[in-house]
Amino acid sequence: MAWTWRFEKADGTEAPAGEAPEDFSTQGDAESWIGEEWKTLLDREVDQVTLFEDGVKVYGPMSLHAEESGEAAEG
């Protein structure tokens, strides 16, 4: 099995991710990598990612942007 990430802009078009690995041997490895590299991907103008297993979509798109906490609405 091969686990891969698709790197996308906010509109869903593919975004170049630079030197990102092409595939991972486990879902956990793929998710650990994205957990470590998401800020670097944002710097490369990647807005969201989708995870695939052997070409079949597992989940996504998942935004790499931090969600608003709602503090502005409270104050």
Question: If you had to describe this structure to a student in words, what would you say it looks like?
Answer:
The protein has 75 residues and is of the alpha+beta class. Helix content is 28%, strand content 27%. The chain contains two helices and three strands. A three-stranded antiparallel β-sheet has the order 1-2-3, covered by helices on one side. The longest helix is centred in the middle third of the chain and has 17 residues, at 27-43. The N and C termini lie far apart (49 Å). The relative contact order is 0.25. The model is unreliable at 68-75 (pLDDT under 50).
How would you summarize the topology of this molecule?
Layout: E1 3-8, H1 27-43, E2 48-53, E3 56-63, H2 71-74
Antiparallel strand pairs: 1-2, 2-3
